UniProtKB/TrEMBL annotation, chain A:
Sequence motif PRPP-binding, residues: 99-111
NCBIfam families: PRK05205.1-1, PRK05205.1-4, PRK05205.1-5
Domain of life: Bacteria
UniProt name for this protein: Bifunctional protein PyrR
Function according to Swiss-Prot or TrEMBL: Also displays a weak uracil phosphoribosyltransferase activity which is not physiologically significant. Regulates transcriptional attenuation of the pyrimidine nucleotide (pyr) operon by binding in a uridine-dependent manner to specific sites on pyr mRNA. This disrupts an antiterminator hairpin in the RNA and favors formation of a downstream transcription terminator, leading to a reduced expression of downstream genes.
Subunit structure: Homodimer and homohexamer; in equilibrium.
Cross-referenced HAMAP family: PyrR
Signal peptide residue numbers: none
Catalysed conversion reaction: UMP + diphosphate = 5-phospho-alpha-D-ribose 1-diphosphate + uracil
Organism, scientific name: Lentilactobacillus hilgardii (Lactobacillus hilgardii)
TrEMBL record, chain B:
Keyword set, alphabetical order: Amino-acid biosynthesis, Arginine biosynthesis, ATP-binding, Glutamine amidotransferase, Ligase, Nucleotide-binding, Pyrimidine biosynthesis
Family: Belongs to the CarA family.
GO function term, MF aspect, one: carbamoyl-phosphate synthase (glutamine-hydrolyzing) activity
First-tier enzyme category under EC: ligase
Gene: carA
Protein name, per record: Carbamoyl phosphate synthase small chain
UniProt cross-references to SMART domains, sorted A to Z: CPSase_sm_chain
CDD domains named among the record's database cross-references: GATase1_CPSase
Active-site residue numbers: 333
Classification via InterPro entries: Anth_synth/Amidotransfase (IPR050472), CarbamoylP_synth_ssu (IPR006274), CarbamoylP_synth_ssu_N (IPR002474), CarbP_synth_ssu_N_sf (IPR036480), Class_I_gatase-like (IPR029062), CPSase_GATase1 (IPR035686), GATASE (IPR017926)
Pathway given in the UniProt record: Amino-acid biosynthesis; L-arginine biosynthesis; carbamoyl phosphate from bicarbonate: step 1/1; Pyrimidine metabolism; UMP biosynthesis via de novo pathway; (S)-dihydroorotate from bicarbonate: step 1/3
TrEMBL record, chain C:
Protein name per the record: Carbamoyl-phosphate synthetase, large subunit, oligomerization domain protein
Keywords: ATP-binding, Ligase, Manganese, Metal-binding, Nucleotide-binding, Pyrimidine biosynthesis, Repeat
Region (Disordered): 816-835
Gene Ontology molecular function: any one: carbamoyl-phosphate synthase (glutamine-hydrolyzing) activity
InterPro entries: ATP-grasp, ATP_grasp_subdomain_1, CarbamoylP_synth_lsu_oligo_sf, CPAse_ATP-bd, CPSase_dom, CPSase_lsu_oligo, CPSase_preATP-grasp, PreATP-grasp_dom_sf
Native source species: Lentilactobacillus hilgardii (strain ATCC 8290 / DSM 20176 / CCUG 30140 / JCM 1155 / KCTC 3500 / NBRC 15886 / NCIMB 8040 / NRRL B-1843 / 9)
Domain ATP-grasp: 131-327
Amino acid sequence: MGKIILDKMAMQRALTRITYEIVEKNKGVEDLVLIGIKTRGIFLANRIADRLQQLENVTIPVGELDITNYRDDIEHDSTSSDVKMSNNKIDFSVEGKRVILVDDVLYTGRTVRAALSAVMDLGRPKSINLAVLVDRGHRELPIRADFVGKNIPSSQKEKIKVYVSEIDDKDAVELIK
Amino acid sequence: MTQRYLILEDGSAYAGKAFGSLATTTGELVANSTMNGYQEIISNQIYHNQIIVFTQTSIGNTGLAQNAYESVLPTAKGVIVREYENLATDHFKRISLDRYLKRHKIPGIYDVDTRQIRRHLQQKGNMKASIVDVADEHAFDQLHATVLTNQQVAQVATPKPYPNPDEGANVIVVDFGLKSGILRELSKRDCNITVVPWNSTSETILDLDPDGVVLSTGPGAPGNLPESVLQMIREVQTQVPLFGIGLGHELFAMANGAKISQLRVEHHGSNHPIREIITNEIFFSGQEQGYAVDSKSIDHAKLFITHIDLVNGTVQGLRHRDYPAFSVQFSPDGAPGPKDSVGLFDDFTEFMARRRDNNGDEY
Amino acid sequence: MATNIKKLLLLGGGPTNIGHENELDAAAYERLSAIKRTGAQVIYVDNNPFSFASEEVQPADVYVQEVNFQNVVNIIEKEKPDAIMPKIGGLNAMQVAWQLEESDVLANNNIQLLGIRPIDLKKVLDNQQLRELLDETGEPIIASKIVASDDEAMDFVRDVGFPVIVKPLSASHDTSRFICNNTDEMEDALEISFKRTYIKWVSIEQSIVGYKEIEMVAIRDENGNKLLISGLEDMDPIGIHSGDSIIFAPTQTLINQEYQSLRTATFRIMDAINITGTCHIQFAQSRTDSNYFVTKVSPFFTRNALLAAKSTGYPLSYVSTLLEMGYALPEIKLPEKYSKYLPFMEPTMDHVVVRIPLWPFRDIPDVDQHLNTLMKSVGSTIGIGRTVEEAIMKAMHSSQFSPRDILPSVSKISDDDVINQLIHPLASRILILMEAIRRGFSIDELSELTKIDRFYFYKMNQLLRAQDFVINNPLSPTAVEVGHKYGFGDGMLAELWNVNISTIERMNRNSKTKVTFKEVEPSAGEFLETTNVFYSSYELENESQPCVGKTALIIGRGGNQLGPNAAADYYTAQVLDTAHKAGYKTIIMNTNPNAISLAPALSDKQYIEPIQLGNILNIVNLEKPDIIFLPGNRHYLSKKLKEFADLNIVVLPPDQKVAKYNQRKATDAVDLFIDHDRILPITTISFYTNSHRTELRYINNYQQPMNHWQTDEQKLIDLAINKIDTSQWQGLVQVLFNRIDDQSGYQFSGIRPIRITESAFLNKTTGINWIDALVKKYLGILDIDHLSEYYQPGTHKRYAMMEAVFPFKELQSNRKDGTSTQEVGSSLSFKNIES
């Protein structure tokens, strides 16, 4: 059974906080682009872009990074060391831009590492920052989130599930034992 | 039933019956339209030197409970109601309104047309008023002659720092006449609070090694406070997350270059929708407001406007562009009032946590 | 955003009954004016003959059919609407909507469901899913379990604690329930239950009997913006259906913390079910601590939603409609007379509203009058004042249908009976409670016995003392002042002191407290709203300015009653409409919060005041209307009013007392419209009945045209016209005949004014608004020539049938046949005539 750690309101507030922090750190929205990872990161990135629109009245481009396993005999989970990018949708250049990668949960760091490679393959951004809704600890790589919605320490036996209303019918972050 | 009068600066007088103390008082007349929470309102130090007219007709129905006061010593100058109940109903072991007012020497008048008074006030704008035994020329003379103090904050705020210990983040609350609701919400989030006097310097505050600083609510005009307070804010905001509420918000704005104007009629209630600009959503919150940040005076290179009152257009929230410093005009703790925006306290604790995690890293 | 909706299917509420009277129609009316502004076409389904709203829709777009799955499917196939709006059809319409969704009809026809998403509709209508949803939201619900043995029951109790309610679950309508406070009682209850041979399962749940019942009405738009319209407090605790409770707005005994918790809970639930428009949620609030439970979620327009709207002055139905169609709250634009901030400000009240239910027991005396969780009231009435006492008193006045403005006495009831009624409440509760106080019961005792908050007893005690003071000080100016302050109308003072009301009027002129009218508006004086709804109080400032120009005052019927039921208010609404179209500024006086006649768009000004002599005179003195309409026979009232100077009073229709009968049997009738010496035939009617009774008062079903119309219609019409002496009969008149068999022909039975219910029927079936014609006649502007040219009863293509609805099943009575005074509604249907 899942316990709701962040309800809809809390999720919204977290994204709002992240948005302010992005503007604060970047001293504005110049050259800012957002790239959402996997499915849910994309929706979160869009929500952050909406907020930036409301706040600064500018349209920030949002790209999509769809990371799937290259080899189909390996289980689809982020602990696999062989990941390959496909189905990306980034129709802007990252050259000289401040890229903000957006993901729902930061865990081992492997997905992010792959995302970093993917972005750098596309060009030479000015900087890459990471924004995540939830940081659950247990990093296996030296990856750190610059913007965190909420820290949720968890054991490796537990699962953290993020629901977004765009596809899941509700907004929530659940901890499943 | 003793008859008493509420007399207004513009010469009007209203006769009613006395309850509470029989003191004669003078203060600014304000109308509050909140429908619940008269206890929280009367004990809120924002109402220092003010006479409160309640538009809600029955006040006192539920008595007063020990855990719902917004301050220890209320300093309102009067309570005007249509119908008052001298009740202390069973649960929560309450005392009655009459006893409370008598104890704190606050006079009350009931059996008056409070709706008429409110509409009159709305038309005429802010006014001084007195509660007197006789509404004669002498009383009016006294009223006109009375100059209300501009030292409200000094009169109600704590003169010495005091702790409110807990295990979590270190929070310094700068007391301008704070309402307990602020402390309650911080306590709920385990904050280890130290309340310091309004005129503390930034050195004093920063020496206490805060994770965050809260600028509290309080009575009166922000312009009554010296420049040193603004200086303190400017220095503190660069070092730690800052959260200003009510008067604290106004001071935050001034410290960052904005101007304050006085509202023609003070607004006390929770019926105005407030728009959060970044999400474009509206919500409600308790507002006790006599002054507002002038939106035209805001330096947009320094501050975001984060919230707006949709009815009167006033700035209801600000945030600094460069620091995790933000403020709101309304009372997110909701005592009384909706708790729609209580999440702002969570924001504050998250900003503090973020800072601790990053160990004060430079970005 | 839903501006792309071109054709909207609106499901109506159907015939009125216990549980819903006019409120759905009133809501529908407001809704239609909102939809009109968006330009969408409306298809309306309703078989309620007393629906005023359906007449606002193009006749071709109205389907007079029962709102059920099959009918709606057929209509969808024919009309192909873009969207469907079930929320003002009550629970029935919501269920039909669900069936449409389940069977993919909506998907297959590309129809948008407005107000709630299908997936959420399912959750709300299925009890188990709703419980799970609430659980997930973190909102507390009553623990309950179905058990088959004593052991299981004990397990439950170990977890949840006492008290619990044990309910045997049976296929038959066994509604017995046992409240158990300890193990002994529970074991007894289980033994009794399981002993019955057909009982295998028993439901056991946490008992919240005695908890305070608090209701919240709120709205939400599709962006998640939410606003609370009002909280309502039921004076009667959980255990009495909220429809039968005495309700106060705003809440009176909640502290800020409790109120905000419930408000927040309401918002969270609305978010969880993603609704747009109105939502009404009921809670059980502990009297001893801050715990609460969610007891009912109604994400559609309900009676109490309308009560919240009327209490605050907020145009709820109008705004709700736009929200359901996809408009965001800040985008809502209201008709000009309202302040532009109004839609998105949370209403604040500076007055008190008390709602008292009205009972059917006088007309159906042989039913169990004890109040419990099954609703028994047929209507309600409200009183508005500036103090709680004043509002209570005015509500009580409004609930008296006796012409004399006095409250019935309960002083003859024995002490035992009083106690009995305290524990097992009957109707007229407030009188019993006051009597108990008078007899010396302590407030603590009373509160404990009845579980009603002590606050209310303090208030009733105040009322009692005021009443005693007034009785003991006849004709003293102070007593008049006290009386006024506490809501005793002038009429009541006159009755108490046994003087003519003009004596009181004279005293008023010298009194320093004059009657003042305050506006019901949602900003508590912050904005100069012009809702144009007023109530009286004795304060300093009067806010009501007399209307300028020709004015018509229409005196409503007050709360809904059996007999004329919803038709009475339909009638009133028609009168209002006609007067308005005739160029009069219309002023309505009424106290029924569910009334269509109080729909804001239907009049220029509203007074929510007890329909009693004193109150009427206060309004008449201020407004000085050119004409006063008294729809529905109010014999006593019109007589009394006529004593006062030259008031131009029109009573419509005339009293049934003037009817003349040869015999009390009839099978057919001819309806006529008589203006001066012109007699215009309207149509012919056959009566039919579902019972064996033949007396006229048991005949409550109509068919138009009559049987054998092909051969007998003209004959009968001629016969009827012959019977009329136009010096005696005017307006809408019915001539009754009794047909025995083919040989004997038609016996003349009598003449009577056309009943209110039948007038509505005629409107619906003939396509002519006869009530409108009647009003025009009395206004002196009827063009009878034009009417007679335009309307000729001729060939008939279909039969129209109106069948009365009785509340016997709802009241758990075994009665089968009802008299016309027991009707609670009617249903309308059409049948094609085989050619």
